[in-house]
Amino acid sequence: MAKTRGYLREYTRNLDAMIEAGAQVRVWCEFCKEAADIDLVALRARVGGEFSLLNRRCRCRLTPDCPGWNRFSYLSGVMRHLADDETLARWEAQGWASVRWR
Ligand SMILES: [Zn+2]
User: Fold this and answer.
1) Domains in the chain: how many in total?
2) 1 within some domain
3) How far is the CA of 58 from the centre of ligand 1 (A)?
4) Long-range contact list for 56-62, CB < 8 A, 24+ apart?
5) pTM of the entire structure?
6) How far is the CA of 98 from the centre of ligand 1 (A)?
7) Can you give the residue range of the structural domain that contains 29?
8) Tell me: the pLDDT tens digits for 6-50?
């Protein structure tokens, strides 16, 4: 399998698989640059084990009134986007430019 920047581990398909794999997931904002670890077990309690963070983003919940988008990444050697190449390209085309992990 080619290691593209959107390279995705199989367990990213849903919360059950990510928890079983011991995945570490972070949410971060492309605008205010805030970041936080995600408690996957607590999230699953709210949304269920079939829920997937893949190719998902939401309005910033890290900073009040921030106009940015929150995105998700997971640790697999290095931090990787929880999104496939097609989705990343679409988001980039909408104005998202650079990423700095923190
Ligand atoms: Zn923000």
Assistant:
1) 1
2) no
3) 10
4) 56/82, 56/83, 57/91, 60/29, 60/31, 60/32, 60/34, 61/27, 62/27, 62/28, 62/29, 62/32, 62/34, 62/35, 62/36
5) 0.82
6) 15
7) 10-93
8) 578 999 999 999 999 999 999 999 899 999 999 999 999 999 999
